[in-house]
């Protein structure tokens, strides 16, 4: 028998469809907040700006400054038939060959519906932009040869759309270009295909007030990719392999974390992607290197996995049976977390990317 903490079915919970946020809050600061105490599982609720009253004094907040790219592109096969193409390889990591003005690179992408495409098919994405399917897999990313002329980032802006998750049952609009980004997302860190959604609640005013309160701020980059939303199909979650994602931890952030730990001050991650970056590098390198780190990291965190860096977590409410839910359960305890989720459902909290927030402390 699989122990409950490792059983996929243990992470199912009832969620009425009306609890899934389809649009962002009217303003970023209007989202609600649930605070979950790790020590006793107690919860309290308020509004997100109240987080100033609940964060440990002098703590270090670490956030993911990656920016979402318009990576979802309507496509059609050269022989006819419409598909949706989602570029998974972060554009900053694409290394292209160039010949006679045409660039090409092998990348990973999701196709929907994938059954319509066959290896060798040419997918038309726009003027001066196409892809040739090289390998189609039963689940997950396909391998394609991407070809283009000009600036790829500009072509994505021209033909692509912000890749809202499938549970948001509407097309992306102009508002999403702003609201599906954090206010601190950097233009030079544009490479994610999903937002680090815990950061969507922060406003410039709240960031200023955090600094004035003596809390410190540091940033990492994790290009959110397929690993964040890849479904878990193993009844025993310990068999799941989380795909790697690219992480950049600058030396200044490594130093800030080391200073906080040496001074006994809490490290609070803004979002699960930040947890995966910090804990993943720590596990791979037996600590955060003083010189920082750049490279792929793939750490699946579930109950029983130790935390070496992170003491607290600001996060959203996650999908049932998702790796993100399991990461939060690893920090808070599975039963305490699911009890908090049940309260959130009863009290009408909004779930998932555009939903409300939780502080696990």
What does the secondary structure layout of this molecule look like, with pairings?
Blueprint: E1 32-36, E2 43-47, E3 60-64, E4 67-68, E5 72-77, E6 82-87, E7 97-99, E8 102-112, E9 122-126, E10 129-135, E11 142-148, H1 152-159, H2 174-179, E12 190-192, H3 204-212, E13 216-222, H4 226-229, E14 245-249, H5 251-262, E15 267-270, H6 272-285, E16 293-297, E17 312-316, H7 323-332, H8 334-346, E18 357-360
Parallel strand pairs: 1-18, 3-13, 3-15, 4-12, 15-17
Antiparallel strand pairs: 1-2, 5-6, 5-9, 6-8, 7-8, 8-11, 9-10, 10-11, 13-14, 14-16, 17-18
Helix pairs in contact: 7-8
Summarize the structure.
By secondary structure, the chain is of the alpha+beta class.
Features:
2 domains; 8 helices; nine-stranded mixed sheet; 21% helix; six-stranded antiparallel β-barrel; 361 residues; alpha+beta; 18 strands; QueA-like; globular; Thrombin, subunit H
Distance between the termini: 32 Å
**What is the number of strand segments?**
18
CATH classification class of the largest domain: Alpha Beta
Order of secondary-structure elements: EEEEEEEEEEEHHEHEHEHEHEEHHE
How would you write the strand order of the largest sheet?
Answer: 2-1-18-17-15-3-13-14-16
Strand composition percent: 25-35%
CATH topology of the largest domain: QueA-like
Categorize the overall geometry: globular
Cα gyration radius (Å): 20 Å
Question: How does the helix and strand content classify structurally?
Answer: alpha+beta
Count up the helices. 8
Low-confidence segments: none
* Residues in helices, as a percent range: 10-25%
């Amino acid at each position: 028998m699989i122990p409950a903490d490792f059983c996929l079915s243990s992470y199912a919970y009832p969620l009425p469809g009306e609890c899934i946020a389809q649009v962002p809050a009217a303003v970023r600061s209007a989202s609600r907040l649930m605070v979950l105490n790790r020590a006793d599982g107690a919860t309290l609720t308020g509004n997100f700006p109240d987080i100033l009253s609940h964060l440990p004094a002098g703590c270090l907040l670490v956030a993911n400054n990656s920016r979402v790219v318009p990576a979802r592109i309507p496509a059609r096969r050269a022989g006819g038939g419409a598909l949706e193409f989602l570029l998974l390889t972060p554009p900053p990591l694409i290394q292209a060959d160039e010949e006679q003005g045409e660039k090409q690179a092998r990348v990973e992408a999701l196709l929907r519906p994938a059954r319509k495409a066959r290896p060798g098919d040419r997918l038309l994405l726009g003027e001066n932009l196409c892809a040739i399917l090289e390998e189609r897999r039963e689940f997950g990313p396909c391998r394609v040869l991407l070809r283009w002329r000009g600036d790829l980032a500009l072509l994505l802006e021209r033909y692509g759309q912000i890749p809202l998750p499938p549970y948001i049952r509407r097309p992306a609009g102009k508002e999403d270009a702003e609201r599906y980004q954090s206010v601190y997302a950097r233009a030079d860190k544009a490479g994610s295909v999903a937002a680090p959604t815990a950061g969507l609640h922060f406003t410039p005013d709240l960031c200023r007030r955090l600094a004035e309160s003596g809390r410190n701020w540091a940033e990492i980059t994790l290009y959110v990719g397929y690993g964040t939303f890849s479904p878990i199909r193993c009844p025993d979650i310990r068999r799941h392999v989380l795909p790697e994602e690219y992480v950049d931890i600058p030396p200044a952030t490594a130093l800030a974390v080391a200073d906080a730990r040496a001074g006994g001050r809490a490290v609070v991650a803004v979002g699960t992607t930040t947890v995966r970056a910090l804990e993943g590098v720590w596990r791979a390198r037996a600590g955060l290197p003083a010189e920082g780190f750049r490279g792929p990291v793939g750490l699946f965190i579930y109950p029983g996995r130790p935390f070496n860096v992170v003491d607290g977590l600001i996060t959203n409410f996650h999908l049932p049976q998702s790796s993100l839910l399991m990461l939060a359960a690893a920090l808070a305890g599975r039963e305490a977390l699911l009890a908090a989720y049940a309260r959130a459902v009863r009290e009408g909290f909004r779930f998932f990317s555009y939903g409300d927030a939780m502080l696990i402390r």
